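Appendix C: a fully annotated inverse folding record. The material below is reproduced so that readers can follow the format used throughout the book. The structure is listed first as tokens, followed by the designed sequence.
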């Protein structure tokens, strides 16, 4: 399949002091593609996501979005962060703002929408993630699963070109995992470009176009879920799968 590349990493290297945390990473994410990233703790998955959003600078190599190098600072960087939304394990909602305000804020500040337009869009998105009746609550009044769906709505409110998810369900009680995965599955079906770090192998099998397996800062395998789960090539991946499946 010919892909129309949206995100491209070429020979990316990053260090934390002596630790070589991303080692010659090459990855292309096509428009509309869902790439699931898996691998042991400490293998560099979060750093990879953060590098794509430029929350972490890299030491060598290049990362491009739509063919353009990632901006390093200023307004262009703020724009990038809105175009490549990120959803974290820990929700990161503003505790002293309502659900509606959480979703509208960035639209007004970064997208320069009028408040009533932003609020209208926020309500549409709340409806889409199944939370139309929660607009005036504060984050602490919601369950973890609901908070994470608000975080997804907030990222969507910026009309992102792509969304990055870093273990979005890892902090959730088991009964709340599916309501978040269902929203993500829906986005995938609608053609959103997504990079998803997750241990939810059911999601990887059903939603991913490709599974990227990382170990020790390297991409060890980059294949279809079908190929990866039925016949992993590397010992690292075999070992990892035997522990989690
Ligand atoms: P993963 O998400 O796969 O668990 P991370 O990308 O979070 O892995 O971390 C990769 C490695 O980099 C780990 O050894 C981690 O301890 C280290 N690391 C992550 N962030 C920092 C940091 N800000 N400073 C120093 N080391 C870090
Ligand atoms: Mg991580």
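Designed amino acids, in order:
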């Amino acid at each position: 399949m010919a892909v129309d590349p949206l995100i491209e990493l070429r020979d990316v290297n990053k260090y934390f002091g002596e630790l070589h945390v991303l080692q010659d990473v090459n990855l292309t994410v096509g428009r509309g593609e869902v790439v699931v990233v898996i691998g042991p703790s400490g293998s560099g998955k979060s750093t990879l996501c953060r590098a794509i959003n430029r929350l972490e600078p890299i030491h060598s190599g290049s990362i491009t979005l739509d063919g353009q190098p990632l901006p390093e600072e200023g307004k262009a960087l703020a724009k990038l962060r809105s175009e490549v939304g990120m959803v974290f394990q820990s929700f990161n909602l503003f505790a002293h703002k309502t659900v509606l305000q959480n979703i509208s804020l960035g639209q007004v500040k970064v997208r320069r929408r009028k408040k009533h337009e932003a609020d209208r869009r926020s309500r549409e998105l709340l409806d889409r993630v199944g939370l139309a009746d929660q607009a005036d609550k504060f984050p602490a009044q919601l369950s973890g699963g609901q908070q994470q769906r608000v975080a997804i709505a907030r990222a969507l409110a910026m009309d992102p070109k792509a969304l990055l998810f870093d273990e979005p369900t890892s902090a959730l009680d088991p009964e709340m995992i599916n309501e978040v995965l269902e929203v993500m599955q829906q986005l995938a079906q609608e053609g959103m470009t997504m990079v998803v770090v997750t241990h939810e192998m059911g999601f990887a099998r059903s939603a991913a176009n490709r599974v990227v397996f990382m170990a020790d800062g390297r991409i060890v395998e980059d294949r279809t879920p079908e190929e990866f789960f039925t016949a992993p090539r590397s010992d690292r991946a075999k070992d990892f799968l035997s522990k989690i499946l």
